[in-house]
Amino acid sequence: MADLNNIPILEILPIEKLILHEFHDHQRTPPIIESIRQDSMLRNPPIVVSLDDGSERFMVLDGANRITALRDMGVPHTIVQIVKADDPGLELTPWNHVIWGTMPNVLLDWARAVPGLSLLPCTEENLFRGLLDIRSLAILHLADGQIYTVYTQEIELVHRIKALNKLVNCYASRANMDRTTNYTIGPLRNLYPDLSGLVLLPPYRLEDVLDLVSQGHLMPTGSTRFTIAGRALHVKFPLEILENGQSLEQKRAWLRDWLKESLLRKRVRYYTEPIFMFDE
After folding, report:
1. How far is CA 254 from CA 13, 100, 162, 232, in A?
2. Cα(94)–Cα(223) distance, rounded to whole angstroms?
3. All residues at 6 or more sequence positions from 34 whose CB lies less than 8 Å from its CB, including other chains
4. How far is the CA of 112 from the CAs of 107, 144, 162, in angstroms?
5. What phi and psi, each to the nearest 5 degrees, are found at residue 125?
6. Domain of 65: which CATH number?
7. Residue 112 falls within a domain, yes or no?
8. Mind listing the pLDDT tens digit for each residue in 60-77?
9. Phi, psi angles (nearest 5°) of residue 49
10. Residues 53 and 82 in one domain
């Protein structure tokens, strides 16, 4: 039988101890609830990292929709995959935002109307230089070719994140927004006939995000992209175990026995190569 120490760390945690790190779109919650109820299981465990503040809380890196759905369902506990903040397989990169469904000049007007921000023209050659400027919050590349660096006078991280939230909210609540890893607008033009623009966001350090969340602050919706090596997928954990009236320790004992049985029956497989999954 394989060694339990060689597989991802799976644990049962109280829902109340799991903290989201971004503002959440609650419109996504009802379909997730319906899917969990229909399947009677949690297919993929949310991924969490411990907040090093003595509160015994965990920040959700991936699975905010599942956590919110379970919370709304009244489920007291959930299975999670725990990763360490210094895990070499854990990386944090920003998402960029594709905005569509409104005119580029309207998007520009929305950004200009955000209090405390200023927009200065930028060139494609200076995109990345602008993102690294401590005064800049983002780069706004409009579909009509105009490019602006969005500046703030705030230097302290907490206030910069508040300003960035205002910027993201000015379009996320009015237009359509998708996340993307693209840094150039060209490939997006054929995908989005009514493209408004592309917003490039700066990178942030994991320790800074952990500190912000520990203090009760949230990152903008769809701004952080966590990649984790060694993800646990298709766990298919029974919902009835998570929502029954057993104690936390009883559920953890059930999980340990379930893991041992899964390994004994060779149900756990580790893929070292990148794969494409067509049953998600």
Report:
1. 13, 47, 43, 18
2. 6
3. none
4. 9, 17, 16
5. -65, -25
6. 3.90.1530.10
7. yes
8. 999 999 999 999 999 999
9. -135, 145
10. yes
pLDDT recorded at residue 273: 64
Task: Report the distance separating Cα 69 and Cα 81, nearest Å.
Answer: 17
- Residue 279 belongs to some domain of the structure: no
CATH of the domain at 180: 3.30.1760
Range of the domain at 253: 4-91+226-264
First to last CA, the chain: 28
Look at residues 49, 48, 61, 46 and name the one whose alpha carbon lies nearest to residue 85. 49
* pLDDT given at position 276: 64
Give the pTM.
0.87
Q: Which residue in the block uniquely carries the two structure tokens 């955000």?
A: 114
Quick check: 226 and 92 in contact, CB under 8 A?
yes
**Type and span of the H or E element at 160:** helix 157-172
Give the type of residue at 112.
R
- The reply to whether 124 and 87 lie within a common domain is no
Per-residue pLDDT tens over the stretch 103-162: 999 999 999 999 999 999 998 887 777 777 888 999 999 999 999 999 999 999 999 999
Number of folded domains that form the chain: 2
Angle of helix 104-112 versus helix 157-172 axis, rounded to 10:
140
Selected residue with higher pLDDT from 2 and 36? 36
Locate tokens 């309207």: which residue? 106
Rounded Cα distance between 228 and 238, Å, is 24
Same structural domain, 127 and 163: yes
